[in-house]
Design goal:
The protein is α+β, with helices and mostly antiparallel strands. The chain is built from 19 helices and 15 strands.
């Protein structure tokens, strides 16, 4: 029959979920520490707990050596001769156990033994909890609120306690002690102050589990959740795809009159949920992910770095970005792409700046109008920082008068010189354009080319003969009679005309 002490150890082991042998080993190690503290010795000690009687005995352990000359440390070694005096069963290589009394250990030694036992039990508990939950990360479990420590909630998972810090809580939720809620196991670690299980109500896995519970099509994999982006307490975007063409993925998640999604929203204390149909095409998926904003167009800036540019109407810009950038942030997280949103006006200004930079790169030096202005005027303009014809053309007469040495007469010369330069430039561009058009038409195979009759077939001095087309109907009375001089021309014409009778043996089918 087990002793009362062993029964207590067994009950403690069941409560903590650890092996009773671990607790027994902790008790024996505690007695060893207390005995060494009491006797102030460095001997090798060993304690043994008797399961039947509950008695605990402590022993000093010494290794048996053949002779005195082999002994290096008398506290842990003994010769065979001395060992035989104590025990007749002593043999070389064996151990000699000598019992030490533990009745007078005292209060300090007992307190030390208690601390050792608690430490060993806590270590065993941490290992047990870690082995139980480290393979269940991202799993949703039911837990009960055990207590509240500042901003953190402590949950009872059954075999262990779990902590939910402030950053893992939803802004819309608060719980009372004893309330039962569903949480996600976020992380399991070996902490120094007990088992470290962290749970979360802000993880996307919680939304995924709720949809699997509420939507049968997701549970049987007819509808698949491809991506989830969530900001707990604010908004969640979830992308779903149907494996059956007859099943509407979005409709299945929403449910009749929104019953399914409303049940999930209630569980999340009113958090907004956007259900989006998944597309393999990143452009189409981006348009869907930015809903409820209407997107004008989407272009891929860099497919390798996954960078998109989205253009929206000016009235849709704030809606596309969302409150504090929430909508575009969740869309980017859902796609896994970087998204830049611009309005139509911003894009237009960007294009204009690019065009202006291109025009600015083709600046013309003032040397091109030096003949009309003269070197003194050019020197005055250069001293004022004007070095190109384009910058000179952009200046007003008032700005020119502010330059030292420039009067109304010189301003008039400058105006004439600039106008002549641009007129000459436009004329040159027009000539080049016309020449290009003529060259294009000259090489066009569809335009008619000039042809002439063979001089042997038709002399040059004879007038041309207007032969009627075969399809044209001419009155018989007005048909001219060919003369002898025209006979060769008519013969040539008859040779060039295809006769239907030669091609079709049966003229009646014509």
């Amino acid at each position: 029959m087990a002793s009362e002490l062993y029964n207590v150890i067994d009950a403690l082991s069941r409560e903590k979920g650890i092996n009773p042998e671990i607790v027994v080993s902790a008790v024996e190690d505690a007695i060893v520490v207390a005995t060494r503290k009491f006797y102030k010795t460095q001997e090798s000690l060993r304690a043994v707990l008797d399961r039947e009687t509950g008695a605990i005995r402590a022993y000093s352990v010494k290794e048996i050596l053949p002779s005195e000359d082999d002994i290096e440390d008398p506290q842990i070694q003994i010769s065979l001769e001395e060992a035989l005096k104590i025990s007749e069963d002593a043999v070389v290589g064996g151990e000699l156990l000598q019992e030490k009394s533990i009745e007078g250990l005292g209060r300090i030694a007992a307190q030390l033994a208690k601390q050792v036992i608690f430490q060993k039990v806590r270590e065993a508990e941490r290992d047990t909890v870690y082995n139980e939950y480290h393979g269940r990360v991202n799993e949703v479990v039911n837990a009960t609120v055990k207590r509240i420590e500042g901003p953190d909630y402590i949950f009872d998972l059954g075999k262990a306690e779990a902590r939910m810090p402030r950053k893992e809580q939803s802004k819309l939720e608060s719980f009372a002690v004893g309330e039962r809620v569903r949480v996600v196991i976020a992380k399991v670690e070996k902490a120094t102050k007990g088992p470290g299980v962290l749970v979360s109500r802000a993880a996307p896995e919680l939304v995924s589990n709720l949809f699997q519970t509420e939507v049968p099509e997701i549970y049987d994999n007819t509808v698949v959740i491809r991506a989830i982006a969530r900001e707990a307490g604010e908004r969640t975007k979830i992308a779903v795809m149907s494996r059956d063409k007859d099943v509407d993925a979005v409709g299945a998640c929403v449910g009749m009159k929104g019953m399914r999604v409303q049940s999930i929203i209630r569980e999340l204390r009113g958090e907004k949920i956007d259900i989006i149909e998944y597309h393999e095409d990143a452009v189409t998926f981006a348009e869907k992910a930015l809903q409820p904003a209407k997107v004008s167009r989407v272009s891929i800036v860099d497919s390798h770095d996954k960078h998109l540019e989205v253009i929206v109407d000016d009235t849709q810009l704030s809606l596309a970005i969302g409150k504090k950038g929430q909508n575009v942030r969740l869309a980017a997280k859902l796609l896994g792409w970087k998204i830049d949103i611009k309005s139509e006006e911003e894009k237009r200004q960007e294009v204009e700046e690019q065009m202006n930079s291109l025009v600015g790169n083709s600046a013309t030096s003032l040397e091109n109008i030096a003949a009309e202005l003269g070197d003194p005027v050019l020197e005055k303009l250069s001293n004022a920082g004007i070095t190109t014809v384009e910058s000179l053309a952009d200046m007003t007469p008032e700005e020119l008068e502010a330059i030292p040495g420039i009067d109304a007469e010189i301003i008039e010369k400058i105006s004439v010189a600039v106008n002549n330069y641009f007129s000459t430039l436009e004329s040159a561009e027009q000539v080049v354009s016309d020449a290009g058009v003529e060259a294009e038409y000259a090489g066009d195979p569809l335009l008619p080319a000039e042809t002439s009759l063979d001089t042997e077939a038709q002399p040059a001095e004879e007038p041309p003969v207007n032969e009627p087309e075969p399809d044209e109907e001419q009155p018989p009375a007005e048909e001219p009679v060919p003369s002898e001089e025209q006979a060769p021309v008519k013969a040539i014409a008859e040779d060039q005309v295809e006769h239907p009778g030669e091609q079709d043996e049966n003229p009646g089918n014509k």
